[in-house]
Amino acid sequence: MTRRRPPSIAVVAALALSTSLLAAPAQAAVTDKQLPTQKQVVAVYPHLKGGPFEIVREKTFVAPDPGCTGDTPVPVRSARNAYYDRKGGAIPTGAKPSVMIRVAEFKTVKKAKAMMKRHRDFIGHCTYMGDTYGSTDTTPFRAPKVGADRVGYRSAITPHDGEPFWWVNVVVRKGRTIVDVAAHGDTSPVRAKPFRKLVRVAAKKA
What we know:
There is one protein chain. The protein has 4 helices and 8 strands; from the N terminus they run H-H-E-E-E-H-E-E-E-E-E-H. By secondary structure, the chain is α+β, with helices and mostly antiparallel strands. The protein has a single domain, classed as Protein Transport Mog1p, Chain A, CATH 3.40.1000. An 8-stranded antiparallel beta sheet has the order 1-2-3-8-7-6-5-4, with helices on both faces. The longest helix is centred in the middle third of the chain and has 17 residues. The N terminus is likely disordered.
């Protein structure tokens, strides 16, 4: 998946909100209670205390394209994205990352399982991608044993005109609900141990 260097989490949240305000309320909608509170995330990552925190309602789930051409929004019954960032716009690092957690409810368990397969296909087929922006290297990441199914991966993005930055994602399925936990570091890869702890917290909440 090609990821550009992200703007601040607050900016991303605002853009997501602007595209979702026209969505009609969905039956059995995902609620804020299915996402970790800021306090729960701060318990894992204390550096996020007092930083920007936003929950945005969505109607799609953006997922990697197994054809290695980028990301594609997939319609879902209901979704919410939560963004947790560092206070004062501090640069995220491997030890002190910014965090994004997404929860989406698909119309059927079959569709949720298909989304898990899509992520596995992406990891298997798109270990390296290059374009005019730069390159992305993707490697598997061991996910904790949560949910009915789970898959994890790391992405190292190297722009042609800048320094590399890193993402780590774990995607968990619980019935027809998908939870995507992601963390981003600008200066080094995100540390595995606290991130796996965060995944457990998010999977339990969803």
